[in-house]
């Protein structure tokens, strides 16, 4: 229980896990795999991104990929491994030997709101797709807390780029909900989240489902904020992500200004 409470208090999830410890978890991996830090360009400015490559990475094989958006308290200056200290980073470190996804961790100095940070995410994806053997039809956008909000917003504005969304403990973003109906969603929360009420995910999934979209919500009992470990270890999320495929681009309309969603009612809760 103390671990969960500390996770909530810091809005991070490793119960003492640091970004540097996550990086060290793959120090004995074969060259060209595990965690590594890279630099890419966004409108003439340099930004950094952490990348995890599976232990058996082979360039001739196409890999499913996750783009993970960290929470506010994992934000930092370019080059900091702090963005790996909560959410998916420690989970990947625990399962590094068998983690099947190329996993991209772009770095923000704050939240993921606004055009500038959205450009960072898309540019990081574009860069990674040029560098690695990514299956562009199997890219998942995922996040924690404000990264969960970024998952809703950026996923809703770029449904043609992603196969599915996994927002965890995310704030609601009802202005993009109509475009979220184009993507499968699996959201996760602690029912007793003291920082971001789970009602936000309930509302989002509710509206998506009522509008004809596919949205699944799992709420874990207890008090806490970062439930990425529970989502990966106590559900079939990994298998679900491996099964997702991007819709045919001709089925997805061009990005338009955020639409106002109609009212609806509740999502399925496990």
Task: Characterize the structure shown.
The chain has helices spanning 2-10, 19-24, 88-94, 115-131, 146-157, 177-180, 199-210, 228-233, 237-243; strands at 34-42, 45-53, 63-69, 102-106, 134-144, 164-168, 185-192, 215-223. It contains 9 helices and 8 strands. 30% of the residues lie in helices and 23% in strands. The longest helix is centred in the middle third of the chain and has 17 residues, at 115-131. Strands 1-2-4-3-5-6-7-8 form an 8-stranded mixed β-sheet, with helices on both faces. It is an alpha/beta fold. The chain has one domain (2-251): Rossmann fold (3-Layer(aba) Sandwich), CATH 3.40.50.1820.
Total helices: the number is 9
What is the 3D shape?
globular
Please give the CATH architecture.
3-Layer(aba) Sandwich
Low-pLDDT windows of residues: 1-15, 254-270
Order of helices and strands: HHEEEHEHEHEHEHEHH
CATH class category name: Alpha Beta
CATH fold annotation: Rossmann fold
Q: Structural class given helices, strands, pairing?
A: alpha/beta
Number of beta strands:
8
> CATH H level: which superfamily?
Alpha/Beta hydrolase fold, catalytic domain
Mean residue pLDDT: 87
Q: What is the number of independent domains?
A: 1
